[in-house]
């Protein structure tokens, strides 16, 4: 098969790496890709949001399967466009992806189908008085969410009513159309976990549960980021909790979406809060998560191309018994100094050659680029260093040993990725 992967981050690098292992694969193209991906696939100079150009390319190159990494092309309807042209593509349609691109839709959907989530109320931008009244009757902290896609920045946890009221006004200004509707919801206490369900519209298989580390500094301090590291499997998701997630969240989501005429096909990424009252949904994403993908895919024992193909053809049930994972993986993200605020780019990256021969360590590129033949930084999250081992403690040790070999001026990373696991 010829495969096209859309996107340019470490998530897409991990996808391409896993796809490369399939004996079914001939050529892999990635648009736009990055220098790490370029070692495994042919990168195309097209943005992920240039849908018509991507379709033309897929037709010309006889692409047998397209895999979409980021949410924006899904929200823009890339799956609808490809399918209307008879092209096989892994991902949800625009209407199914509304679970991610409208938080208000997602909350109402969960309410309709009895899926456990935080209590909430939604307000339009003009309903400041009603929102203030609701906030004044809510217990603190309270969480404000812009309805639309906001590149991971549309959520604010407010510890006081004054802050919440001010944030409501601020969100309206900051997020444009994405902030036309704002969800105000109950703060859930607990520990977070990420699960990926690969869904074919009616059936699903689960990949290894993972845990992200969203805050920039050790001990979960500082600002929220795209994710500073991850590990899998996450022991907080015990077999009992996983069963609850499948029965009370994944199954009703799939039947609910199908009954509403929006069958969900693709990766359903559920951000969970594991509360004392069981797992609750913090958010749905309609794609693979990053950095979680960098630890989940290396643990998957099966052919991902077969899995994606079965998903597109609605026969995921046939593969269920083949889907298994083993070992543990941890990924440490190396970020530019200053991230998630302003940071410099174009800084030379050293040491990657030293890791080329280490067979349980993978270095996934996020924000890198080639300047001539020199690899330099080009984003906030620069590299993800993943180590795989039979036990998590060993994986952590190997990941940090590898991290120690890589250097660039100003590099910042957390030193405590995976530590949370040992509490359980
Ligand atoms: P999201 O973009 O929806 O994943 O939200 C970003 C982060 O905000 C989450 O990873 C949580 O840490 C936090 N968060 C969102 N909603 C809630 C909630 N209802 N209760 C507690 N924390 C939340
Ligand atoms: N790990 C967070 C995300 O991919 O949204």
Describe this structure as you would to a colleague.
The chain is of the alpha+beta class and 424 residues long. The chain has four domains: 2-93, Rossmann fold (3-Layer(aba) Sandwich), CATH 3.40.50; 119-186, Dna Ligase, domain 1 (2-Layer Sandwich); 191-318, 2-Layer Sandwich (D-amino Acid Aminotransferase, Chain A, domain 1), CATH 3.30.470.20; 328-423, Glycinamide Ribonucleotide Synthetase, Chain A, domain 4 (Alpha-Beta Complex), CATH 3.90.600. 29% of the residues lie in helices and 27% in strands. The chain has helices at 10-20, 51-60, 71-75, 78-84, 98-101, 103-112, 128-137, 161-174, 239-259, 292-299, 304-312, 352-355, 392-403; strands at residues 3-7, 28-32, 42-43, 65-68, 89-90, 120-124, 142-146, 155-158, 181-186, 191-200, 204-206, 211-212, 215-217, 221-224, 229-232, 265-275, 278-285, 328-335, 361-365, 368-371, 374-377, 381-389. The strands form six sheets. It has a five-stranded parallel beta sheet. Strands 12-15-18-22-19 form a five-stranded antiparallel beta sheet. β10 (191-200) and β11 form a beta hairpin. α1 (10-20) packs parallel to α10 and α7 (128-137) runs antiparallel to α8 (161-174). The N and C termini lie far apart (43 Å). Bound molecules: adenosine monophosphate (AMP) and glycine (GLY). Residues 118, 143, 152, 155, 157, 185-188, 192, 214, 224, 271, 282-283 line the site of adenosine monophosphate. Adenosine monophosphate (AMP) binds at residues 118, 143, 152, 155, 157, 185-188, 192, 214, 224, 271, 282-283.
């Amino acid at each position: 098969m010829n495969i096209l992967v859309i996107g340019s981050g470490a998530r897409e690098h991990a996808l391409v790496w896993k796809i490369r292992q399939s004996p079914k694969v001939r050529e892999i193209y990635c648009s736009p890709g990055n220098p790490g991906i370029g070692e495994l696939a042919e990168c195309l100079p097209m943005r992920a949001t240039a849908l018509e150009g991507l379709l033309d390319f897929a037709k010309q190159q006889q692409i047998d399967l397209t895999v979409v990494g980021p949410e924006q092309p899904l929200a823009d309807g890339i799956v609808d466009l490809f399918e209307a042209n008879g092209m096989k593509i892994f991902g949800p349609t625009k209407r199914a992806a509304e679970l991610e691109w409208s938080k208000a839709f997602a909350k109402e959907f969960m309410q309709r189908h009895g899926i456990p989530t935080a209590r909430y109320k939604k307000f339009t931008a003009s309903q400041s008085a009603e929102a203030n009244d609701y906030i004044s009757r809510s217990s603190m902290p309270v969480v404000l969410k812009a309805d639309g896609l906001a590149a991971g920045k549309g959520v604010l946890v407010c510890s006081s009513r004054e802050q919440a009221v001010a944030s409501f006004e601020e969100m309206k200004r900051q997020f444009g159309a994405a902030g036309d509707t704002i969800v105000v919801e109950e703060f859930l206490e607990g520990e977070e976990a990420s699960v990926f369900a690969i869904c074919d519209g009616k059936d699903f298989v689960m990949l290894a549960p993972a845990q992200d580390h969203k805050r920039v500094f050790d001990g979960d301090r500082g600002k929220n980021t795209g994710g500073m590291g991850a590990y899998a499997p996450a022991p907080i998701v015990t077999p009992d909790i996983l069963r609850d997630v499948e029965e009370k969240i994944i199954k009703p989501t799939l039947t609910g979406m199908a009954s509403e005429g929006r069958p969900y096909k693709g990766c359903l990424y559920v951000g969970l809060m594991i509360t004392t009252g069981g797992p609750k949904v913090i958010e749905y994403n309609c794609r693979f998560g990053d950095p979680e993908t960098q630890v989940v895919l290396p643990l998957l024992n099966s052919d991902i191309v077969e899995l994606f193909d079965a998903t597109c053809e609605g026969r995921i049930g046939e593969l269920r018994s083949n889907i298994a994972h083993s070992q543990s993986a941890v990924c440490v993200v190396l970020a530019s100094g200053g991230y998630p605020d302003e940071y410099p780019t174009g800084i030379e990256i050293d040491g990657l050659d030293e890791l080329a021969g280490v067979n349980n360590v993978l270095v996934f590129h996020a924000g890198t680029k080639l300047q001539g033949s020199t690899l330099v930084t080009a984003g906030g999250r620069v590299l993800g260093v993943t180590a795989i081992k039979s036990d998590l403690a060993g994986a952590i040790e190997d990941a940090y040993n590898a991290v120690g070999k890589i250097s660039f001026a100003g590099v910042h990373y957390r030193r405590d990725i995976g530590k949370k696991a040992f509490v359980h």
